[in-house]
Write a structure and sequence with these properties.
heterodimer, A: 131 residues, alpha+beta, five-stranded antiparallel beta sheet, B: 120 residues, 25% strand
């Protein structure tokens, strides 16, 4: 299972629209979000989410994650080793379901230490032997 | 089963049960009023309120960058958990009503408890 597969599986949680993984320098390592969201925006959002997570950790020891609920979106962020996993979902997405998925995914995503190339798009019917 | 009554919705003969104050020890209750003034039931709760307020300000910035609309709530989970609902008055400040526990509990429990009208 590749890191891309792991992120793609997170979309099976009802309401989750996509996710991405940042390193501690806010560099995008793996992404499974719309191409409309540039890496710069993901880094900007991720660095603020990481700071919110650190602030939470000051008051509540052993913090695993933070959920931010907005009128049109929910944003979840969680540690994956030294990396930061960010999920984007619908406002009504259940925190319990996401928490479990984050716990399961964090171990494998913690091992990612360099940007993963995006997987190649599946071959279209018009190519190759069908051409 | 038809005879079962949901604790959440109840029916005419069996009104819904109010959420109980979370049974986990050490519930910390806080609120953030105008100008970032934290009101809390203890010094520890006040520290939680300060941290959640800071996290909420960062979250507000996250929402701005994503065009996600107004921040409505912030939840913190781990060994313990905290939940704060957020309102944004017209002056743009953040006002919070929240609570947290140092160990156990779920943010859903905390939210249900806050929704009973708990106030400082």
């Amino acid at each position: 299972v590749t890191p891309h597969d792991t992120l793609r599986l997170l979309r099976d949680i009802p309401g989750v629209a996509g996710s991405y993984l940042l390193d501690q320098d806010a560099k995008v390592l793996v992404r499974d979000v719309s191409a409309d969201l540039g890496d710069d925006l993901l880094a900007t959002v991720g660095s603020r989410a990481a700071a919110a997570l650190s602030a939470a950790d000051q008051a509540m020891s052993e913090t695993v994650g933070v959920t931010m609920r907005f009128a049109r979106l929910s944003v979840y962020c969680s540690h994956a080793g030294t990396n930061l996993l960010v999920l984007l979902g619908a406002p009504s997405t259940s925190t319990s379901a996401v928490k479990m998925a984050l716990r399961v995914s964090a171990t494998s995503l913690a091992k990612v230490d360099a940007p993963e190339p995006a997987p190649q798009a599946p071959r279209q019917r018009g190519e190759g032997i069908w051409g | 089963v038809a005879s079962e009554v949901s604790q959440e919705t109840g029916d005419d003969a069996n009104p819904p049960l109010p959420p109980q104050r979370p049974s986990v020890a050490g519930l910390r209750v806080f609120a953030v009023r105008e100008a970032g003034h934290v009101v809390a039931d203890s010094e520890l709760s006040s520290a939680v309120g300060d941290a959640v307020l800071y996290a909420a300000r960062l979250a507000d910035s996250v929402g701005y960058h994503l065009g996600a609309g107004e921040l409505q709530a912030i939840e913190i989970f781990g060994r313990g958990c905290a939940y704060a609902r957020v309102t944004t008055p017209s002056d743009g400040s953040l006002q919070l009503e929240g609570c947290g526990v140092g160990y156990g509990g779920t943010t859903e429990e905390l939210r249900a408890w806050l929704e009973t009208g708990a106030r400082l």
